[in-house]
Amino acid sequence: MAEPVEVVITGLGVVAPTGIGAPKFWNALVHGQSGISPLVQFSAPGFPANFGGEIRDFDPKIYVKPRKSLKVMCREIQTGFSAAAMAMEQAGLEPGSVDPERLGVVYGSEMFFSNYDDMISAYSRCLRDGEFQFENWGDAFTSEINPLWMLKYLPNMPACHVGIYYDGRGHNNTICSDSISSHVALSEGVAQIRRGHVDAMIVGGTGSRVAINALMFRGDELLSRRIFEPDKASRPFDKDRDGSVHGEGAAALVLESRASAEARGAEILAIVAGDANRYAAAEKGDPFATSAVANSITAVLADAQLSAADVSAVVANGVSMRKDDAYEAAAIAATLGDVPVTAPKSMTGHIGAGCGALDLVTATMMLHESLIPPTLNYETPDPACPINVITGEARAGTLNSVVCLAQNRTGQVTAVALKHA
Do residues 205 and 361 lie in contact, with contact meaning Cβ atoms separated by under 8 Å? Predict the structure, then answer.
């Protein structure tokens, strides 16, 4: 029987509210620097939660190649491609350095909402005496909107652009499953390598919940109302949490078989030990079932051949909502006991399909640097969340393995286990 193929991580890329590039992102996490503030680029005056994790000082021209592709890339595609470019640079890979048939791409993605700037001229043509005339929209749209408009907003385009530039002719796919999208993308990438279909995969995720059309579409029902203290609004597992905080960002990881990485002398940052995807019917009004989270943790430990005692830390989903955090905490406590827990969304906000990729980068850096970042704004423990939340300062110590968790609000939950290299 053939030895199982070990999958390792050799490159990381990040575009986040807390920093661009893995080093800056990590430094902000370790020092508890929030990326949440009043919205500027996507300002929505009068919106009940006009703040979030907004990316600042991002210049896609630095990363996107060929540069002419920018004209068919919305912001989420730009950040997704940029994260992949950073990850490939760290991994020491360029277009053509991997056999094209042995390189693939899988991204977590979501609905990309069109910017008003793209449609304002067509909208204006439909106004008559201040009223919008729906019957004029067809002619206005076809005459005023760029014919390539749709290419800017298709969810599969991040993976397509990355695959085209890096000449990855292997497995290419896009996962659209809300918060768990990036984890499922990683699971699919790992499976392709383990089956021997490819030698390397670029996996990641990208999303935005702060674009003004996204804000309008999603509404404010689940959001925090701390408009006068935006940097204190995201409070995972804290007793006084009052809702989630939106954000934007992207992250990518380069996965390789250990044999491929060692053959070219690449630095191995971490090992992908296991992954799991579980579901359980939730009670009416509940986001997901605690049992599903517990089952995913049990399953990932089995897949990774780890015991609960082997887990050094958990990167929690921690969205700062009352039920969500309580259900996740109950599952962590039941399966892993007093394991240290960190929740990066306290600093970045919830970026949708890309949040799992950010968490995987966080876990990789934790293993590489032997540090557990603190959770921001955890001030009053909640009896409904009986877990060991790291707060204040980063905690140093040898980390053997880290489990990342994600849940969406239709009942699916995922877990990924990474091990020290």
Answer: no
